[in-house]
Write a structure and sequence with these properties.
Elements lengths: L1 E8 L3 H12 L1 H6 L2 E9 L3 E5 L9 H12 L13 E5 H16 L5 E4 L7 H9 L3 E4 L9 H7 L6 E2 L10 H10 L4 E7 L2 H10 L5 H10 L8 H4 L2 H13 L10 E2 L14 H6 L6 H13 L2 E10 L2 E10 L11 E8 L7 E6 L3 H14 L6
Parallel strand pairs: 1-2, 1-5, 5-6, 6-7, 9-11
Antiparallel strand pairs: 2-3, 3-4, 8-10, 8-12, 10-11, 12-13
The structure holds NADPH dihydro-nicotinamide-adenine-dinucleotide phosphate (NDP) and ligand LTNE7NMQ.
Catalytic activity: L-homoserine + NADP(+) = L-aspartate 4-semialdehyde + NADPH + H(+)
Family: Belongs to the homoserine dehydrogenase family.
GO molecular function: homoserine dehydrogenase activity; NADP binding
Length: about 375
């Protein structure tokens, strides 16, 4: 039986769902000769680590308790009674992950999974890669920092997987990677890459207020922790940057033209997420409803589109024909069209659920399993 040690950073919607998938897939993985050993779990304040990372793991009862307590808003630092593991504060946690990577990198190997929405994990992840260990990301921020950081993280390309950063569980990164690896050159990528904005745009068409459907998208687990990351277009810009870098473009986030759906004075420096959702956002309702109405008079719909073409990346709202592949999208579905030498006239098209904890965590789990050959 191959035993894969795993540390999971982040036990919010995606991280908890990943823990549940791991436990629910025990029998399936066992048939495949695999065991995923969760040796550590972190939140923003602390980390739980198995007493002996070589021989022990956080057992399934402990993982279930973590999921339950985190869903109630409890911090991991309060779970001192959980048994058979140690609790570290945030500063120690960072060192713990680096130490575990150092120790297991020389023996069995280790996979560190980033299910946070934080930029702070980048430095640790670079060290994890340096230690010979693997990284799996749902978090886009480490890959959308400087070009230098990106190159460092992807310097051992077999050790990193990040399928869920673009299109959640959809095989977009895998497909683009295969196209590029075959020497086929991608010259255009166009799509709708936000589950939140896809859902919001298709729901406002039915007459619901924008502010109401944004709140629903948050409840459904589609949005980023602060939905302004979605509504500002920055989350789509990050996905676009990941794709552009994957096809070989050496660009940064500030090279991308991004349209925000709310005014700058409602940004995170001016109001809390609660105030934004609770009041600020409704000020945008009228404007969006009017844009939807005008588009509809022409047989069009409003969609938030990502375009990578001619050395330019732009993301923003567009009036688009109802009959087009993007115009037909409903709910949180994403669609992406990839044009290349081999897919010149008729693009390679990938479509399906593009957000949600279940599909995102499933994508992360599939990435983990994909790394199995690197473990002893
Ligand atoms: N939801 C979706 O549909 C998709 C999400 N993703 C990505 O998945 C990631 C997670 O999303 P989601 O689960 O919804 O987010 P949540 O806000 O629900 O959870 C984030 C978790 O990360 C923890 N955390 C924050 N900072 C740190 C840190 N520095 N070190 C360790 N842990 C930290 C938080 O801790 P605490 O509990 O203490 O606050 C929390 O447990 C995001 O990057 C998102 O973009 C990607 C594709 C789709
Ligand atoms: N907030 C994102 C989640 C996936 O990356 C989205 O809505 O697409």
């Amino acid at each position: 039986m191959k035993r894969i040690p795993v540390v999971i950073a982040g036990c919010g919607g995606v991280g908890r769902q990943l823990l549940e998938h791991i436990v629910n897939c025990r029998a399936l993985h066992s048939k495949q000769g695999l065991v995923l050993r969760v040796v550590g779990v972190c939140d923003s304040q602390s980390m739980l680590v198995a007493n002996d990372i070589f021989t022990e793991e956080l057992n399934d009862d402990v993982l279930a308790r973590i999921c339950l307590e985190k869903s109630r808003g409890t911090s991991l630092s309060e779970l001192n009674d959980i048994g058979d593991c140690q609790v570290f504060d945030y500063k120690e946690a960072t060192m713990q992950v680096i130490d575990i990577a150092g120790l297991l990198g020389r023996s069995t190997g280790l996979a560190v999974v980033d299910c946070t929405a934080s930029s702070e994990t980048l430095e640790v992840l670079k060290q994890v890669i340096d230690s010979g260990c693997c990284v799996v990301l749902a978090n886009k921020k480490p890959l959308t920092s400087s070009m230098e950081d990106y190159q460092k993280l992807t310097s051992h390309i077999r050790r990193i997987r990040y399928e869920s950063t673009v299109g959640a569980g959809l095989p977009i990164i895998a497909s683009v990677t295969r196209v590029v690896a075959s020497g086929d050159s991608v010259f255009r990528i166009v799509g709708s890459l936000s589950g939140t904005l896809g859902y919001v745009m298709s729901e406002v068409e039915t007459g619901k207020p924008f502010s109401e459907v944004v709140q629903a998208a948050k409840r459904l687990g589609y949005t980023e922790p602060d939905p302004r990351d979605d509504l500002s277009g920055m989350d789509v810009a990050r996905k676009a940057l990941i794709l552009a870098r994957l096809i070989g473009w050496q660009i940064n986030l500030d090279d991308i033209t991004v349209e925000s759906l709310y005014p700058e004075e409602m940004g995170p420096n001016s109001m809390s997420t609660e105030d934004f959702l609770g009041g600020g956002l409704s000020l945008v309702d009228k404007d969006i409803a009017e844009r939807v109405r005008v588009a509809s008079l022409k047989g069009n719909v409003l969609r938030y589109v990502c375009l990578i073409e001619d050395s330019r990346v732009q993301v923003g709202s567009q009036e688009i024909s109802k009959a087009s592949s993007i115009g037909r999208l409903r709910g949180s579905d994403n669609v992406v069209e990839i044009y290349s030498r081999c897919y010149k006239e008729y693009p390679l098209v990938i479509q399906g659920a593009g957000a949600g904890n279940d599909t995102t965590a499933a994508g992360v789990l599939a990435d983990l399993i994909d790394l199995q050959d690197l473990f002893k």
